[in-house]
Amino acid sequence: MHAKEFRSTRTVALARRLLGKFLVRHTSGSTQAAMITEVEAYQGEEDMACHARFGRTARSEMLYRPGGVWYVYLCYGVHEMLNLVTGPRGCPAAVLIRAVAGVSGPGRVTRAFAVGRRLNGVPATPASGLWVEDRGVRLPRGAIRATPRVGVDYAGPVWSQKPWRFVLVDAAAKGRQKE
């Protein structure tokens, strides 16, 4: 997928489209890839679960960049979280990669793919060593379930219940590859 594809103001639709694509990581002569099986969308300053809810801050500044870069931050002082920035410049939005085939949980994904904050702001391209790739997987009708996002009760009853988490049903049997 190309950076221009991530510059849409339709972050929720883009999040859903990322299911079935592959997260690919190249480090030290080795490449690994796994199908993206769970994501969450965060869109705009009005989204009380989004880091941009307080406007531009040192932490949220990356969300205001043009789509197609990684936003990596530390959660609870323990887990790195991998997000793909979406939207045009100035429209803060991102998609959190919550799971890939064989790896459930955003902290586990970053550990499995050797993702750290040094990738914060880096383009999601093969040249950076971490990118999203379309390998032609077509998901059957009914393969995606939409649910509320995880761990965002602080956002209040409206924003915490937005069905902006997308899960590939029966993801355990799908695509993890070491190349």
What is the approximate shape?
globular
Secondary structure category: mainly beta
Tell me roughly what share of residues is in helical segments: 10-25%
Query: What's the main sheet like?
Result: 10 strands, antiparallel
Q: How many runs of DSSP E, i.e. beta strands?
A: 10
Beta-sheet strand percentage?
A: 25-35%
Instruction: Enumerate the spans where pLDDT stays under 50 for 5 or more consecutive residues.
Output: 172-179
Could you tell me how far the N terminus lies from the C terminus, measured between alpha carbons in angstroms? 19 Å
Cα gyration radius (Å)? 15 Å
Enumerate how many helices there are, as a single number. Answer: 3
Please write the string of helix (H) and strand (E) elements. Answer: HEEEEEEHEEHEE
How would you classify the quaternary structure? Answer: single chain
Average residue-wise pLDDT? 89
